[in-house]
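Lab notebook, bench 4. The sequencing result for the construct came back, and we need a structural model before the next group meeting so we can plan mutations. Quick request posted to the team channel:

Model the 3D structure of this chain.
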Amino acid sequence: MAAALSISPSTVRTTDFTGSLDGLRGLLAIWVMLSHVTQFVAGPGGLITRGGIAVDLFMFVSGFLMVWTVSMRESKEPSSSIATWGKFFTRRFFRIAPLYFLLLVPAYLFDEPFLRLIENVYAAIGQGFDRPFRQCVPSTAVDVLAHLSFVFGLFPCTSSRNVLPDWSLSLEMQFYAVFPLLFLVLIRTRGAALAIFCVALAGVAGLAQAVVGLGIIDPSRLISYPQPSILPLRINCFVVGMALALLVWRRSPDVWLLGALLVSLIPFQRLSFIAIGAMLVLMLLARADVWLRWNASYAAPLRMVEGLLRWRVLRFCGDVSFGVYLVHLLLLLPLMTVLNGWDGFRAMSGNLKFVGVSAIAIPMVLLVAWQLHVWVEKPMIDLGRRLTSSR
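Done. Here's the predicted structure in token form:
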């Protein structure tokens, strides 16, 4: 069966893009953190405040890397085997769940204190804070069970329940649940049928975005969510990444798939459309030197961008990006509370506060995330690999 697949280890260059994607993930995690910093200090506006774009890019990268990872193992773990997908789910669980479950402990134990901290941080800049969906939260036992099973994102009242930005983890797990089907359809379908499939998924995202409200309880919508935590709202983010992986690793371009990929961008919000569109252009042009036999000088600027993303410091940030994403609010809120207690800090402009808080928060969060990576993530990832290793 492996020989019939569109992607196989023989057609994949393992050094392409994956290292630079590690650096990209590191930048995205820091972007999310800085977007919260600027909100807490009423600091600079613009792109830095749009952490949601970074999350959309995370999903895009996730779709790409899942296709790449499964394809690289095709010779040893055929995607036609049910056992392969059992191993896939086991590895992903041990990649995400242990650190998340650990951080759920302080999130639940100090739920009320963290809520007070958030309210006080916003009050310090003259803004109110409200979590309207909080009023419909179920019992603690039901809520804990929903989080431990990762289904909490399916329900508005539990999808953004605590201080952790964990709604995206439920979304990621929903993607993993349907990924085997999406993967097998994408690699076994060609031409117009493949294009129609990709565009149909984009249509699902567009329809969901039209009928589902986000951020506040909106009586004009069929249903409202505080965050885009259900897969139909963001299925196009993942699928664009998956489709790009097919284009990047195939020996020749697929015009149908390229067209479908571009159409699939339409349901994105404007800035996410621009950001992911730019990533598509860069990665497709970087592959075009193989497709079109470009002179190496034409690809030099693209290789330079890739080289920057491979910097050791960014690769390190990529290694600890999951911890940065999960833990940063647990550290930022107490830090902001301490700083807001100083008269000199309160007298600063929002922009100066942003610089000062960022200078403290970035190394602090990276240090904690690194320790979590060393003592929790790596051992659990290794355990998942051992449990799924081929005998």
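The CA atoms of residues 21 and 83 lie 28 Å apart.
Will bring this to the meeting.
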